[in-house]
Design a protein that fits this description.
CATH superfamily: Winged helix-like DNA-binding domain superfamily/Winged helix DNA-binding domain
CATH architecture: Orthogonal Bundle
Helix content: 55-70%
Largest sheet: 2 strands, antiparallel
Number of domains: 1
Number of strands: 2
Shape: globular
Strand order of the largest sheet: 1-2
Structural class: alpha+beta
Amino acid sequence: MGQWLRSGLRRDVCVVLYDLGEPTGQQCKAALEDHYDERVSPGSFYGALDTLVETGHVAERADGIHDRYELTEAGERALLAHHEWACERLDL
């Protein structure tokens, strides 16, 4: 699976990106906060996002004053492989 996806926050960022397509960082963070029902530290969130960009699992592009993020093919493959693994263990 690779170390990049061992973090629950990084996995959840990938799930949100898969769902939303190309959100801004703030839109992605807000979606996670809605899911967690609590504030996510900006340092933790952007650290996780930066790691995903650095490892090539997430692409970042400028869009005016905001950056937008999306899963790369490698990121999508890894996320779907993790999903399959979890479903097999949860007997879904």
